[in-house]
């Protein structure tokens, strides 16, 4: 097919961009079999090809050569989510977000919080409205979602559980009790179906003038160069400054970029169903059954949901006829209503890179993993916020040359860790070798009578925020040899860790006070010109390790960029702020 000359106006028809005409000279990224996977003209290691835009006005929420915070006059009025009232970018083009799942819509809302407009392109004609899919939202993710106005709504609408039980045959071998929440804090986990999460996010998107959501827009071509991106759908072309690809595990954008999605798929089938029934539980709780009499040799997971709905996951053999009613009757003797069901196989896959030029992969487009531990959607939402604040600074010309690439360094490392944890879980749940089968059987049988082996039972290590102690943006305070990296470990408040939350004397919580800019936490009364400052009470300052004179620099996503036990010099503070904005010192 001959190539057509693209219109200068975004949104008009463009029939084919497979071969650029003289008027379309940007590198075309189309075939996943292309040997040069990373768009021509882009330097993988240095971020070459970025726009050399001049610095924008100081209303931007970031740091440049002369660092100032978004609290300076001129930022414009803020909405209820704390975003700037107007974009601070030198580019008037929006960010193109591909995919209107929870990660894509969250990315658009986080961009809006920074005053950045976006166009969200969703291939489906409409949003799915039935079925739980991902159901478990972790406390820190609720904090994250509250920054875009939906965390508290989801917490109220969902089911809170603090008890989890694990059974082997007829024996209860593990009882897990999560700590109660502090006053004003979100619960450790809230169960609510992904469709409800999407419903709340879409309501916020519809109310946000900086987000343009378009259904029925299948991406067929992607171009990018140092000045921006152009994304083609059958309905036309959208030009943008950057692209966030959140279009799921079959990502069209990932394919157009030619990125490998290496990993493995598990052969065992799992039947998941949502049923409405009274199971006789006094309080909602999670239950995991190994080798129950009603599913011998395999496992079943029960999770509570709102409105008396229960999510049930069965592991089933390939030769088993899937009779949903018969399977439910083994668990539910009384009446029940079938709400939704699906059959799936688990995958563990990772994109070879999360950043190519001005395109960032997020959520299932970048990584897929088994759902045991609820690490999929939760980690994808951390992807969304990480991508948004970095794109916002990059648009301003205030992000350093290492800022966009740091998304790959941070979020790919998080995905690698999640895949390590969930991979270990799947080796326990779905043993592939005789040795793995024997190990699982030995652990479960010994756990019936020996409490010391019960922590070896792996039914899923629950989702937790990743740590960026190895990030190029982090000003490291000291040796990391003793930093706890195991799943579920308590992380000390060192640079690279999500800033701990705490109650403040005025009844608010610390994280709720973080705006879209960098924030300095210090108990010192000394002035810090041009910087957003919060003064924590003495007990909190001591817990953070900053005492009466020290300081902690918090990134726009709530992570600690630097911690100073004593009063930092202006030069040290500026260096940490610049580093956290992508001006990484050369080594």
From TrEMBL:
Report the superkingdom from the record.
Bacteria
Region Disordered, as annotated, extends over 1-86
Q: Which GO terms describe its molecular function?
A: 3-(3-hydroxyphenyl)propionate hydroxylase activity; FAD binding
Biased-composition ranges, Basic residues, are: 31-41
Give residue spans, biased composition: Polar residues. Answer: 55-70
Domain FAD-binding: from-to ranges: 94-419
Which GO biological-process labels does this protein carry? Answer: 3-(3-hydroxy)phenylpropionate catabolic process
Pfam families hit by this protein: FAD_binding_3 (PF01494)
**Keywords attached to this entry:** Monooxygenase, Oxidoreductase
Its recorded name reads Pentachlorophenol monooxygenase
Query: What is the organism field in this record?
Result: Amycolatopsis suaedae
Read off the lineage from the record: Bacteria, Bacillati, Actinomycetota, Actinomycetes, Pseudonocardiales
